[in-house]
Amino acid sequence: MTPECAAPSLRHARTPLVRWIVGAARRLRTALDDLVLGSTCAGCGTPGSVLCAVCAHHLHDLSGLLTTRVGVAPVVACGPYRGTLRQVIIASKDRGVRSLARPLGALAARHAFRHLPTDGRVLLVPVPSSPAAMRRRGYDHVGELGRVVARRLRARGVRVRLRHRLVRVRSVRDQAGLGRDDRLGNQRGSMRWRGAPPDAPIVIIDDIVTTGATLREACRAVEAAGGRPVLALALAHTALSRPALVLDPARERPA
Ligand SMILES: [Zn+2]
User: Fold this and answer.
1) Is residue 54 part of a domain?
2) 119: which of 17, 84, 221, 251 is 20 to 30 A away, CA to CA?
3) pTM for the whole thing?
4) Ligand 1 geometric centre to CA of 43 (Å)
């Protein structure tokens, strides 16, 4: 059983000692991140915590985007890949500031909640990092993001389970600098669903969506296993914003 599977029962069983240990672990993580960043805000560089109040408010105020332009399940992204959001993602992804998974995960959960099916269960499935990216970063940053998103969605009453069921079956080139068609070809056939077939609608999660090639491949692998992708969730979008297609607003629910 993964830690996420055990989370609901642990939450109810938390004693003051367990809460103190969890809080101490969080403080230790933040202290380690302060060492990485030199106690500056990841968004603006202001001395202090890893995310200052101004940047936290900026993230909170992002309006998000829902689009069908990438040709897979509807994609919701929290905001454009620029400014504060970009800086915070880079710090989390490439500079090892792992405590930023909490505010980023909370942000993603808030945007996902508005567009999830209003009843039933969902499986939250992270896009797998390449082995090279895992070695370089030392951890699975999308997986950590997924853990926070699942926890936050459960706190809102969503019946969500985190499942790391997508795996890479071949390596892909670095997507930076590739055009849309090259990205599609680069990703095609690179993922596979492992384990039992999906038993609930699927929400795919990734960090940044550009052409949607990675999300397309993730959805293809899900469908090949008999699953049904209902939403793709990303922290940020790049080329999707020209122009955005907002789906049926009636599907939204208050954040
Ligand atoms: Zn800041």
Assistant:
1) no
2) 221
3) 0.79
4) 5
User: Could you tell me if residue 55 is inside a domain?
Assistant: no
Distance 224 CA to ligand 1 centre (A): 43
Distance 84 CA to ligand 1 centre (A): 8
Six token digits for residue 67: 């689009």
Which residue stretches of 38-179 are H helix? 53-60, 83-94, 101-113, 131-137, 141-155
Domain count, the chain: 1
Q: Is 122 helix (H, G, I), strand (E, B) or coil?
A: strand
Ligand 1 midpoint to CA 50 (Å): 8
Alpha carbons 83 and 177: distance in angstroms, whole number: 20
pLDDT values of the chain reduced to their tens digit, one per residue, 255 residues: 333 333 444 444 567 777 777 777 776 776 666 666 568 899 999 988 889 999 999 999 998 888 876 767 899 999 999 999 999 999 999 888 899 999 999 999 999 998 887 777 999 999 998 888 888 888 899 999 999 999 999 999 999 999 999 999 877 777 676 666 677 777 778 899 999 999 999 999 999 998 888 899 999 999 999 999 999 999 999 866 554 445 444 445 544
Does residue 27 sit within a domain?
Answer: no
Q: At 234, which CATH number?
A: 3.40.50
